[in-house]
Amino acid sequence: MSKIFKVGLIGCGHISETYFRAEKYFNNIKIVKCADINFNNAKKCAKINKIKAVTVKELLKDKEIEIILNLTIPKAHYQVAKQALTNGKHVYSEKPLAINFKDGQELLRLSKKNKLYIGNAPDTFLGGGIQKSKELVDKKIIGKINLGSAIFAFPGVQSYHPNPEPWFAKKEGGPAIDMGPYYLTALVNLLGPAKKVSGSIVKGVKRRTIGIGPRKNKTFKVECPTTYLSTIIFENGTVIRLTLSFDVITHKRNHIELYGDKGSMIVPDPNMFGGSVYVCKKLGNPWTEYKTNKMPLGKINIRSQSSRANESAINANYRGAGLAEMAYCIENKKTHKCNGELSLHVLDIIDSMMKAAVTGILQNIKTKCKKPKRFTNQEIKKILRKNI
Ligand SMILES: NC(=O)c1ccc[n+]([C@@H]2O[C@H](COP(=O)([O-])OP(=O)(O)OC[C@H]3O[C@@H](n4cnc5c(N)ncnc54)[C@H](O)[C@@H]3O)[C@@H](O)[C@H]2O)c1
Atom 38, ligand 1: which residue's CA is nearest? Predict the structure, then answer.
């Protein structure tokens, strides 16, 4: 029987619902108190989830709390995680680690100095989709992967989010900060660490119109680049062309495609836990499907779309797996999968891509991280509840 870690939530917004749901899936986490800079949000969240709302300060000083779950907005991740670490708490934050490399680096230093765990989303790479892809890549089913492409592109959140401005704000906005972590974490998982990165910006629509809510039809100014094109050179020699954009009406490309010297692979959506992997080993042949819906973190667990969380009507969403795995590792003194080295490396790639786009100069990635190992069924079993 695993120990159940008492978790204190800071940031009671949209995504918090998904983490409360995670308690049903994983056997070692329990959110017992919550706090928010806006106390009304904390009170609302506490009432729905039958826990206690406290102030941020009270939560950070609370002796009962072992892990701070940081679900604040990206620009607050650094301050909240830092406060957690200086108050003797382990911390697990939503993505990204911080909005700039320097802050991320400091968080890692602090966690090491204080001998506390720092964990970070995304944890979607622990799901069936990326894990099945990893198994096939590691078995060299498509041979040596020389190149590939990855794309996240859509028109932006302004049509369906009542408060879309943060996605377009000067320092913390844009698709690289918002969606980059999913794609880059998945790629580092499959290919190992990156070495160099280029970047360029394509100018998009500079004023956007809010499509929903009390401010419907109001316009606002876009303060950050909304399209990045980048080439990433990995240490193993693979070259990936990455598109991250809030300026594309629609497209039909696959999220990630990898091209090896023995075949090609379509990797499912890195923002989700499930999805099939497809492999084709000869021009003109049909693609072989590798289903993941029988895998422990690939099984469909969402059958009706939540209006609040970012998920499609039917899918596998086990967000919180990274937090539960970190808790397991704290108890067993192991290195967790969603660790600080990995998230700092991903932030380094994002930061360097942005720098490359401004300077026009190819940037060296400053950090290294170990290529993550597979999340085995045996390991998953340790944190998954029996009935899941
Ligand atoms: N919404 C999604 O579908 C989704 C999906 C995946 C990841 N995420 C990530 O989760 C995080 C939160 O997203 P969200 O959609 O829930 O945002 P949100 O704006 O709905 O909620 C954020 C909450 O944090 C609070 N907050 C902000 N700064 C704070 C501070 N300094 N101290 C304490 N509380 C503070 C806000 O008052 C708000 O209640 C982001 O990092 C986002 O990238 C969101």
Answer: 13
10 lines ligand 1 (CB under 6 A): yes
Q: What is the mean pLDDT of residues 359-376?
A: 96
Per-residue pLDDT, 305: 59
**Domains held by the chain: number:** 1
- 45 within some domain: no
Range of the domain at 173: 126-298+342-364
Tell me the C-alpha distance between 226 and 245, whole Å.
6
166 Cβ inside 6 Å of ligand 1? no
Which atom of ligand 1 is closest in space to residue 121's alpha carbon? 7
Assigned domain for 8 exists: no
Q: Mutate which of 9, 10, 14 to test ligand 1's pocket (most atoms within 8 Å of Cβ)? A: 14
Mean pLDDT over each residue of the chain, to the nearest integer = 95
Q: Max Cα separation, the chain?
A: 63
> Is 227 inside a domain boundary?
yes
Q: Residue written as tokens 């400053």? A: 366
Q: Which residues of 158-196 are buried (b: 16+ CB within 10 A; e: fewer)?
A: beebeebbebbbeebbbbbbbbbbbbbbbbbbbbbbbeb
Residue 56, ligand 1, Cβ within 6 A: yes
pLDDT at site 306: 55
DSSP state of 2: P
Query: What pLDDT band is residue 311 in, cutting at 50, 70 and 90?
Result: low
d(CA 183, CA 297): 18
| CA pair distance 336, 327, nearest whole angstrom | 8
75 lines ligand 1 (CB under 6 A): no
Give the pLDDT confidence score for residue 384 in this predicted structure. Answer: 96
Cβ burial, residue 378 (10 Å; 0-12/13-18/19+):
exposed
Q: Is any ligand 1 atom within 6 A of the Cβ of residue 42?
A: no
Choose between 14 and 147: higher pLDDT: 147
Residues 333-345: pLDDT tens digits?
999 999 999 999 9
CB of 45 closer than 8 Å to CB of 12? yes
Q: Is residue 294 part of a domain?
A: yes
- Residue 163 CA: nearest ligand 1 atom is 19
Q: What is the pLDDT of residue 114?
A: 98
Cα of 230 from ligand 1 centre, angstroms: 27
Q: What is the CATH number of the domain that holds 245?
A: 3.30.360.10
